[in-house]
Amino acid sequence: MFTKAAVLTALTSAALAAFAVAVPAQAAPAATTALPTANMEAVLKAAQIDPRRADDTQTPGAHDSVLLVEQALQAKGLLAANYVDGYFGTTTITAYSQYQKSLGYTGIDASGLPGATSLEKLGEGRYTVTSPVSAGSRVAFRGVTINTRTKAMLLAAEKIAGITVSLTQGSYNPGGVDASAGTHDGGGAMDISVSGMSSATRTTLLKALRNVGFAAWYRTPAEGFAYHIHAMAISDPDLSSGAQHQTGDYYLGMNGLANRGADDGPSVAKVTWEEYQRG
Fold it and tell me: Is 139 in contact with 150 (CB distance < 8 Å)?
């Protein structure tokens, strides 16, 4: 014989079971779809090299990231659909410059070379930025102004070469030297004195500069300059337009001059500072 308490307990259990069947469990919230990623290192490299090519060959490893940037520019009405192709050519440079200006940027900040802040703003809701590159802050160093990224690169090159150099011109120096053709207007630029250097030492230094991520050449009076080494930090986000052209030409095996002649410097594997640091 069942007690009253036992009967009540059984009835309660049956009711709870029926309720559980009648009311389905709430579905788990759908997972948020991750946004694609735009690699800033790849975008920067393409933005330097692609506009200097004689054809539409794309910079290896940059297609997917550049395409995301171009799609975002197209969505803002700044780039026609036929230029959304993964090739960061002159039309994309112009479109990106227009976008930078729409954010209130001027001068070198609106050169069409993507910086981390503008790249992230452009990608809001469309992509996230990976491998960001920063020029760092401006610093006074050996009598000139450069940025902290360039300074770190120079110190690394000096360590490799086993020498300490003197600088005759730095960065952020608009109109400083006419012969520089605007390459020192932005960041990443240096001119190095070669006074007292032997030919062998100059070559050792040029190799070291190139090994850490500079596009570097020995300039001479025959080219229209006083003797010096001219060095541009590849992928510095503050590069002036002229400096962007020089770094792009360096990748394409040229001398960085207006005649776009063959590179006459030592042959090394071409890398950026970030790639050098990763080994």
Answer: no
b/e map of 211-244 (b: 16 or more CB within 10 Å)? Answer: bbbbbbbbbeeebebeebbbbbbbbbbbbbbbbb
Q: What is the pLDDT of residue 24?
A: 47
> How many CB atoms are closer than 10 A to CB 82?
8
- Residue pair 238/135 in contact (Cβ under 8 Å)? The answer is yes
Torsion on CA atoms 159, 207, 137, 241, rounded to nearest 10: 170
- Tell me how far the alpha carbon of residue 136 is from its chain's centroid: 13
Among 20-34, 115-129, 178-192, name the one with the lowest average pLDDT: 20-34
If one compares 181 and 70, the residue with the highest pLDDT of the two is: 70
Nearest-angstrom CA–CA distance, 64 and 39: 9
CA angle in degrees (0–180, nearest 5) for 264-233-137: 160
Q: In sequence order, which residues have a C-beta less than 8 Å from that of residue 243 and are 6 or more positions away?
A: 182, 183, 184, 185, 186, 188, 189, 232, 236
DSSP 187: S
Phi first, then psi, for residue 91 (nearest 5°) are -65, -40
What's the rounded Cα separation, in Å, for the pair 279 and 272?
11
Task: Name the token pair of 174.
Answer: 């608009």
Packed helices 199-211 and 148-161: angle between N→C axes, nearest 10 degrees: 130
pTM of the model: 0.86
Stretch (H or E) spanning 14: helix 4-22
